[in-house]
Automatic annotation (TrEMBL):
It is found in: Cell membrane. It is a multi-pass membrane protein. Its main location: membrane. This is RND family transporter. The chain crosses the membrane at residues 16-36, 223-242, 248-270, 282-300, 343-364, 376-397, 642-661, 667-688, 738-758, 764-783. Residues 252-400 form the SSD domain.
Amino acid sequence: MISSLFIRYGQLLVKLRWLVMLAVALVTVFLLGHIAKLKLDMDPDMWAPQAHPYVKTTKQLERLFGGTNFTVIGVIPVQGDIYQAPVLAKIQRIQSGIEKIKGVIKGNTISLAARKIKNIRGGEDGMVVRPMLDTIPGSPQQMEELKAAVKASPLYVNTLVSPQGDAAAVLTDFQMDKLNPSYDAIYQQIQAVVDRERDSSVEIVSGGLLVNLAATERHVKQLPLFLGAAFLAIMLVQYFSFRSFQGMFLPLLTGLLSVIWALGFMGLIGVHMDVMNTNTPILIMAVATGHAIQILKRYYEEFQDLTRRRREPSLAADLALVGKTIQGFSDKDLSRVAVIKSLGWIAPIMITAGLIAIITFYSLTIAEVSVVRHFGVFAGSGIAAVLLLEITLIPALRAALPAPRMREQNAERRPSVLDRLLSKLADSLVAGNSPRILIGGLALVALALVGVTRLHVDNSLNHDHLPGSEVRRNDARLNSHFGGTNSMFFLVQGSKQDAIKNPKVLQAMSELQQFLNRQPGVGKTTSLADMTKKMNQAMHADDPAYYRVPDTQELVAQYLLLFSMSGEPQDLDNMVDGDYRQAVIQVLLKEDSTQHAEALYNLSKPIIEKYFPAEVTVGIGGSLPETIAINESLTRDKIQNMVQMTLIVFFLASLVLRSFVGGLFVAIPLVLIMLANLGLMGWFGIPLDMGTSTTASMAMGVGADYEIYLLFRFREEYQRHGNLALATRTSLMTSGKAIVLVALSIAGGYSVLLATGFAFYIRFALMVIVTMTVSTVCALVFLRSMMMVFKPRFVFGQPRPLFPIDAAPLAEGE
């Protein structure tokens, strides 16, 4: 039944079409001006749940010891070892150059050439402390002495120098600019320093968190090119849908304007862009074109019906909608009538589906993690823009444009391969195959549930890049020479000043290090305990038997005093705070799997409980633990969000359809999308991480639209004709066909990400394509079978629609 409310709205819109287009243009110009305020924010702080203990520990580590953007620069001689004057000179210059970069934490920038890297050895006075590489050795004997000194310092082997001496490292750390956080900007400055030292004698490679995120940032900056490609892909789908310029142009215009409005609104309210939301414009564009397909399909239906009846008296009532009589009307008048009538049919459904999607996306703004909130704002605002434009600009433009030509009408009427497939599906459903289809669907659901049990949560920033990428190659190269390019920290906190000088605490740190060093994936651990062992050995004439923690706190204090007198005040500031109340154990890892890092921490807990005094606490922090917290929070929030979105859709759909069963019919696809998404990940071993956890919620946000459009159209046709077969075929070949084209638009738009060369986007695109396929099959096949089997009253009985309607034919002049 057609809504008289929207018929009157359509009449007003046709009269004010030029004013509507002017208003849209002004709003677009206004919001376009605010897009320049958007910033690409790569700061992980905005992703991190601030209340998580790992994040709190990371913040404390940053306050005490600097940042956690661990970076490794490896200098690898082509021939021989590092103990060559030209190679050591390069290390010195790289050390000096890195220290001059803005944001660098000098105390955490270390190499053999750093002032704080000391050669601790025994002497006549007990302990001699000198810079390891104060000057470059001028003779072979001095070079051999340097080599022996490094080899005798376990703290530096596998961190600053490879065990074989064939590579040296400069380790550094940076604090991000909070106003303009950019990893790539810092990376380019590092490269400028490094590039000056490149020649045929050495290979210089960089790795670590900063390098990884800088590469990610560069991929994100390239995304606008792929958005353009997505635009073209969607354009092809639109042309396939309508085979006309107007049919292709209007949906794409809506999509483009919706993205501009959403981006401008974000700039207006100060919401930043981030790596998780950079591909949301493709979603908005695809959803916009999807809704446009629905309304344009209905427009063509109405226009063809009017054209067919152009010589019949019944046309008079329709022409009265635009103030015309049966004499002297034009095709343009028929086009405007078609605009008004299509609004009367589609606008209530579109508003229902749009509001459900908007509320669903905006419900994400209560999430703990800011990137999820940003996604909710971005997607919700985009869908709101889509809805507003679809019920204003598209009808206004369609009323202003010439009527479809005969060739365009014929192309629209000509049956396609898709039409024939949907017709066969309708026949199969009506012919009694629905129970079998339903049973087969339930078997697939059971298979998906088994896949869910195989799902694991993990995140690896390194694996966001393809195996053959420069990031992955350099990472493997550095890990083959050194302890690792990834780090986590154990923060040891005493209850009072000088707590760390307690030999029991230092010995506990040593025990924990020994345990960690035996674990797979751990390349090296360092702490103040290592320094005190070396001091103790030096005080006993470098006897290896005394490479152990001193026996008493007085000895520890004495050794540290002697060290500070021979060295510099900041020599230990990356290991312990000034009050000796808090110290850190750095763990170098050869992989950045959050699952591995968390398992390592859980394995360490019994060791911590066994050896550390009760008044001392030990927590973990750093880039990997913070990623664990982010991933844990994101995945937990996403699961909660999916449940939340399903419940909201169920409630709203039940309200709109005035039926509990109707709410189930709309919500079931969302549950199936979620199960299929998680189940496929489980079967294929794809981890639930920051990227893949976003896919299901995006698909769920648009999945409800499919069922709403189909349910309304089937109910309309069934109440009009009372014929099950005809209602099934008509609904599938109109709204059902539009659903397939919408899914093709979304899948086609995201498919361009497969060419980005960025594994994160490739996985994301594949999951979106899969979920679009699942949601389409679910709506067209599974739920249609359910409807045939159970024949719900809200569809087959007397409906009670949400919007005011007029069941009677339109009267003259109405």
